[in-house]
Amino acid sequence: MRTTIVLDAMGSDKRPQPEVEASVRCAETLGVDLILVGDETTLKPLLAAQPGDKSHVRIVHAPEALEMSDHIAEARAKRNNTMQVGMNLVRSGEAQAFVTAGNTGMAMYFATKTFGLIPGVIRPCLCATFPVKNGKCVILDIGANAECRPEFLVQFGRMGSVYAALLLKREHPRVGLLANGEEEGKGNELVKAAGPLMRAEVPGFVGNIEGKELFAGQVDVAVTDGFTGNILLKSTEAVARLILDTLKEELLRSTRTKIGAALAKPAFKSVKQMLDPSEIGAAPLLGIDALVFVGHGRSDVKAVLSAVNQAKIAVESGLLDSLRQSIPLNSSGEVLS
Length: 337
Hints:
This protein is an alpha/beta fold. It has two domains: 4-121 and 287-323, Isopropylmalate Dehydrogenase (3-Layer(aba) Sandwich); 127-277, 3-Layer(aba) Sandwich (Isopropylmalate Dehydrogenase).
């Protein structure tokens, strides 16, 4: 039986072209059924113009789209927006996951409203996968919770460990707490309070880590608050872009460097691929009682294809059930401390 993924056709900055084009490719290359959600009068001719087999792509009409600038009041007024309509399809059982490249805050709001949280989860978090030495590292939260309490970070660590085990194939994920020093007692009040709790309650916890341990690949999961994580994400993307652009400029500066660049082209291609955020495509909202993936607003066809692939892997690996089991509850349904 094919996995069915709902794709918000009105999420990206260049909507709906990347989503429509990617939907046909997803159906053909990933073997999934795609439900495109958006204004059918816009989507039908665009889909019809796409080459390839479209028998596994269908359109569900949603006349309203959310803007990146929308606030909660404006979003609530759009009762038939693509996120709400698409998430309702997952809730009704017509699909197993929802993917959008739209407003992250709105995705979190509508996902919480539509699906609720996994029993025991206090706050959902946004989870990213970073390239590090010899592999990848899961980092959370990257923006869903600017303000956190220590117990939030404990749950982020547990859920991040599950995600790393299933999607990165880590048998015993190593979990670190991002801080300004490796020694216990370093960090702000949040980090100081969270460290002992994580040591007691998070399997594979190795203690505080700095940025150098993160990018050296010494942990599989790095935990932080959403404010810090979002700055880390955007700064890392900006530095990667600066390095690639500077290298390109320098290598094209003279005939000699152009020859060197031609010889080293396979290596540069590998580095560029490793640093390309479209290789992952989307970040899951962990803690929501459903599979919801949020991509970057600048997503292109490749990024949307990668995002749908992440959602497919999550469905087929049983991620949601594993996340539900990661939060220990007592017989009354209360979170065990």
